[in-house]
Amino acid sequence: MSSETKPILYYDDRSPPVRSCLMLIKLLDIDVELRFVDLFKGEQFGKEYLALNPQHSVPTLVHGDLVLTDSHVILIHLAEKYDMKGNLWPKDYEKRMQVLNRLFFECSFLFRRDSDFMSAIVRQGFAHVDVVHHERKLTEAYGAMESYLENNEYMAGEQLTLADLSIVTTLSTVNLMFPLMRFPRLQRWFTAMQQLDAYKEANCSGLEKLRHTMEHIGKFQFPTTEAKVEE
Ligand SMILES: N[C@@H](CCC(=O)N[C@@H](CS)C(=O)NCC(=O)O)C(=O)O
């Protein structure tokens, strides 16, 4: 693998894991070629894409001979290559493990629950979705994040890391439906994240597109919009 080769990111920016990668690319000003894969047209099932990523998901990053098919690994790889100061992916072992712990939380707990909810809306239409069930699952995840912030400014310590980028895009998606009122530390952290240029430039438009798509397919309206969140 040559790190001089330009990375290629296969993306659909309605996807929260994609938006985390886009935020990092903005933050580190990485020169990346972007190739759109329209999830709602089923382009992830195309033969060529499946050969690259049999999980038929976005994001996928191709960097030289390396093919990475999970946003968390992509974040780590790009930080290893381009975050020379080690701010977002700390050089200190314990701090790094803390970041990794939160990335796994996002992957296996928060995103999974968000994805279960969104998939239910797409499959069944909103009118048939057990919203109370999903609200319980997702507010439990809010509670976990509220405790992560008990002694820390950010999700994995006192500085912005990959953990915050990974979590915030999914959180912003869940927040379209379930507000953060009962979670003051999480609300404060989210408001701070919304001020980042990388958030404004790499999360807002994909989030808005997702909202439109979900409302159209699910035949309903989310109670919250990003504009309302920022008030
Ligand atoms: N753990 C993966 C999850 C990726 C994922 O599930 N992406 C969804 C969009 S949010 C997707 O591509 N779904 C299309 C499909 O499964 O066919 C990551 O973080 O990259």
From TrEMBL:
Ranges where the GST N-terminal domain occurs: 5-86
Gene3D superfamilies per record: 1.20.1050.10, Glutaredoxin (3.40.30.10)
Domain GST C-terminal positions: 92-220
Protein name (database record): Glutathione transferase
SUPFAM superfamilies documented for this protein: GST C-terminal domain-like (SSF47616), Thioredoxin-like (SSF52833)
GO molecular function per UniProt: glutathione transferase activity; steroid Delta-isomerase activity
GO biological process: cholesterol homeostasis; ecdysteroid biosynthetic process; glutathione metabolic process
CDD domains assigned to the protein according to its UniProt record, in alphabetical order: GST_C_Delta_Epsilon, GST_N_Delta_Epsilon
Record gene name: Dana\GF13683
